[in-house]
Amino acid sequence: MTSEAEAQIRDAARKREKSKAAFERDDAALRELFVAWRAQGVGPSDMARWSGMTREWVAKIAPKPKP
Fold it and tell me: What's the rounded Cα separation, in Å, for the pair 13 and 19?
């Protein structure tokens, strides 16, 4: 019974680690897109609507570029 528990827990932990790595990779890519498009004049409200994030969060990640 303990070997079954160990196997299931180890498997779940591996899946979690892979999911975490994928989330961090995809989150970084999204942040880079926010910054790049904000620099080209796309507003945080539009990007928030398209991404499902809040406008405030997008504006914090990609503030208005300084002239």
Answer: 10
